From TrEMBL:
<keyword id="KW-0812">Transmembrane</keyword>
<feature type="transmembrane region" description="Helical">
    <location>
        <begin position="108"/>
        <end position="132"/>
    </location>
</feature>
<feature type="transmembrane region" description="Helical">
    <location>
        <begin position="184"/>
        <end position="209"/>
    </location>
</feature>
<dbReference type="InterPro" id="IPR035906">
    <property type="entry name" value="MetI-like_sf"/>
</dbReference>
<dbReference type="InterPro" id="IPR000515">
    <property type="entry name" value="MetI-like"/>
</dbReference>
<feature type="transmembrane region" description="Helical">
    <location>
        <begin position="12"/>
        <end position="33"/>
    </location>
</feature>
<keyword id="KW-0472">Membrane</keyword>
<keyword id="KW-1003">Cell membrane</keyword>
<feature type="transmembrane region" description="Helical">
    <location>
        <begin position="144"/>
        <end position="163"/>
    </location>
</feature>
<comment type="similarity">
    <text>Belongs to the binding-protein-dependent transport system permease family.</text>
</comment>
<keyword id="KW-1133">Transmembrane helix</keyword>
<dbReference type="Pfam" id="PF00528">
    <property type="entry name" value="BPD_transp_1"/>
</dbReference>
<protein>
    <recommendedName>
        <fullName>ABC transmembrane type-1 domain-containing protein</fullName>
    </recommendedName>
</protein>
<feature type="transmembrane region" description="Helical">
    <location>
        <begin position="77"/>
        <end position="96"/>
    </location>
</feature>
<dbReference type="GO" id="GO:0055085">
    <property type="term" value="P:transmembrane transport"/>
</dbReference>
<dbReference type="GO" id="GO:0005886">
    <property type="term" value="C:plasma membrane"/>
</dbReference>
<feature type="domain" description="ABC transmembrane type-1">
    <location>
        <begin position="73"/>
        <end position="267"/>
    </location>
</feature>
Length: 282
């Protein structure tokens, strides 16, 4: 009996801790949603109300009616699609020989690729800025899209680990049937590697949907700014000293949060499968 009570007590404690952290994680999203339905005066009143008595749904209509909202959306989609396509192509192609072929120095090359992950991204900003300025790429999408076609180390690692879980006998059978190594990759491995392609694709899409730092550094023109950068300046009040219409900005933030959440809901099964398989030891 004591064991039953103790096991029930442990389960209750576990559920209580899980519920607490679930509320802790969900509360910022709820607060953004609540703030997006308040008036400008209501959002700054004290003590703050958990939820407005008269929700201002017209805040969302006002945000969507802005002429620059579609421009920001178009630019975000260009960055998202360009980087996702680039990283899927380049990372999978680089990972293929590292996982399926034998050649001298393979371990050293893979180790060097992993070593680049240790370099803080912020330390590369100045060299990249100088390089892109000399190439005449500043104030365009090129500084953010072109590097994705040269493979990102973490994505190479994920692809390599997944490819190594596929039996090499499949490659040998395909080559006996007359396939070249390229055909083995495109016609055999790629269809079998659907979970990792979805995983890397979703991670890349969410990253570039939310990316602020690089567009802020490389883009100046208003008509090239993505949603993240546009949100910083789009809701400044006219005649105010750096005053912001926070209710509209929260509505904008809520709209921006919806696509990643929906994408994750539909792709969560493949995400778990891809990361789980890629994390397996050699």
């Amino acid at each position: 009996m004591r064991k039953d009570y103790s096991s029930k007590g442990v389960k209750i404690l576990q559920y209580a801790v899980l519920i607490f952290f679930a509320i802790l994680m969900f509360f910022p999203i709820f607060w953004i949603f609540s703030s997006s339905l308040k008036t400008l005066n209501g959002i700054s009143e004290f003590p703050p109300k958990i939820f407005p008595t008269q929700p201002q749904w017209e805040n969302y209509i006002e945000v969507l009616k802005r002429s620059d909202a579609l421009t920001y959306l178009k630019n975000s989609l260009i960055l998202l699609v360009g980087n996702t396509v680039g990283t899927l192509l380049s990372s999978s192609i680089v990972a293929y020989p590292l996982a399926r072929m034998e050649f001298k120095g393979k371990g050293v090359i893979f180790g060097m690729i992993l070593a680049t992950m240790m370099v803080p991204t912020v330390t590369l900003v100045i060299p990249q800025f100088i390089l892109f300025r000399n190439l005449g790429w500043l104030d365009s999408f090129l500084p953010m899209i072109v590097p994705s076609f040269f493979a990102f180390p973490y994505n190479v690692f994920l692809f390599r680990q997944f490819f190594k879980t596929i039996p090499k006998s499949i490659d040998e059978s395909a080559m006996l049937d007359g396939c070249t190594k390229l055909q083995v990759f495109t016609k055999v491995l790629v269809p079998l590697a659907k979970p990792i392609f979805i995983t890397v694709g979703v991670l890349s899409a969410i990253f570039w949907w939310n990316e602020l730092f690089q567009p802020l550094i490389f883009i100046d023109s208003e008509n090239l700014k993505p949603l993240t950068v546009g949100a910083l300046t789009a809701f400044k009040l006219e005649g105010g000293q750096n005053q912001t219409a926070w209710n509209l900005q929260m509505a904008f933030a809520m709209i921006m949060a919806i696509p990643p959440m929906v994408l994750y809901m539909f792709a969560s099964k493949h995400l778990v499968a891809g990361i789980k398989t890629s994390g397996m030891k050699d």
